[in-house]
Specification:
With 361 residues, this protein is mainly alpha-helical. It has 16 helices and four strands.
Length: 361
């Protein structure tokens, strides 16, 4: 075999892997969109790409980003939680109430995180144990947490007396702590999802729960842990939001749940499960923030924000569906190499490895 043939044989699989990777198929187009929108807006107002505005964009989406990372675990496992927004509001109210009653900041954080983790545990046990659809279950939780938050706060914001400075307003290396919390959560989640056994179990459970269970993967425990992670991060995000404004507002962030799902889908996840990444979610969150900031800089009337948000989400879902359809059709076409491999191998049914969660879509 000639040297050129050897080089081509090595290049083809690498090219195929690159084209199939989520980074190329989903994250790269988002980065291009962010760059194009930023350059277009900066051409009209050179302050858009200024350091102050970039920091402000990251600060504005820090709470949304933390919640979206939690949703990434759930969506990758084929689950969903619509109650994270009102749970975050309830967490902020409880944290502010603890400070109002004279409690310490540390114990307020511990209490809120523990309560939210227990709520996530309850969601996970109900979904995994009783097979209750998470959409209906958490939709009921949305109303429940909103009512409890209004009852506890007596339907009015609870002042936090300028406390929790380290959680919401302090600067470290020029960036406010909410931005650092967001970045840390993204990095830790990315490492867990990609390099740990639990991360592989999440993708496998979302790809094919029955096959994963038959291979020995604890699918029920995986789903429970995903709900715990999501609810815990939602509670922490609620504390960060409360610390930023020094107030526990029971009505804050009513759209955070849908925005978080939109960011996860923009980042390449599919609601059917088996795919999604915290880094993709990070880019999706940033894209939503850049679009909203660009509308503000271009003096677009505020009622267009929801229209643009819905249009971006619909476009992302359609593009993802088309990409999946093309990949499935491409994979089903017979090839010469496939025919050779089939004839040379022993007959028998093909066995799909459920641990390859991202490639099962």
């Amino acid at each position: 075999m000639s040297q050129s043939s050897v080089v081509l044989a090595h290049r083809a699989p690498l090219r195929q892997r690159m084209l199939r990777s989520d980074a190329v198929r989903f994250v790269l187009p988002l980065l291009v969109a962010i760059l194009a929108i930023s350059l277009f807006t900066n051409n009209k107002n050179d302050k858009f790409l200024g350091s102050d505005n970039i920091k402000n964009i990251l600060l504005q989406v820090s709470v949304l980003g933390i919640i979206a990372v939690g949703q990434t675990f759930l969506i990758a496992a084929g689950q969903l939680d619509l109650s994270v927004a009102t749970l975050a509001a309830l967490a902020g109210v409880i944290g502010a109430m603890r400070i109002k009653d004279g409690g310490s900041e540390l114990w307020a954080v511990v209490l809120v995180v523990a309560i939210c983790a227990l709520i996530g545990l309850a969601w996970g046990l109900l979904v995994a144990g009783l097979r209750i659809p998470p959409f209906i279950l958490t939709l009921g939780g949305t109303s429940l947490f909103a009512s409890v938050a209004l009852r506890v706060s007596k339907s009015s914001p609870v002042p936090a007396r300028e406390r929790f400075d380290w959680l919401g307003r302090m600067k470290v290396f020029g960036l406010q702590t909410p931005i650092w919390f967001f970045l840390i959560v993204v990095v830790v989640a990315a490492v867990v999802m990609r390099y740990t056994r639990f991360g592989r179990h999440v993708y496998a459970t979302g790809s094919n729960e029955e096959a994963s269970y038959l291979t020995g993967i604890p699918t029920a425990r995986t789903k429970v842990l995903c709900f715990v992670i999501s609810s815990t991060l939602a509670g922490f995000a609620g504390l960060v939001a409360m610390a930023r404004i020094s107030t526990g507002d029971p009505r804050v962030g009513s759209q955070l749940a849908l925005q978080a799902i939109a960011a996860v889908v923009l980042g390449g996840a599919t609601l059917a499960g088996g795919r999604g990444s915290p880094l993709g979610t990070f880019v999706g969150v940033v894209l939503l923030a850049v679009v909203q900031s660009a509308l503000t800089f271009n003096n677009v009337q505020t009622f267009w924000n929801d229209a643009v948000f819905g249009g971006v989400l619909i476009f992302a879902v359609v593009v993802t569906a088309v990409g999946d359809l093309r990949r499935r059709r491409g994979g089903s076409r017979p090839t010469v190499l496939g025919a050779v491999s089939t004839t040379s191998a022993s007959p028998g049914p093909a066995i799909t490895d459920p641990l390859q969660g991202e490639n099962n879509q």
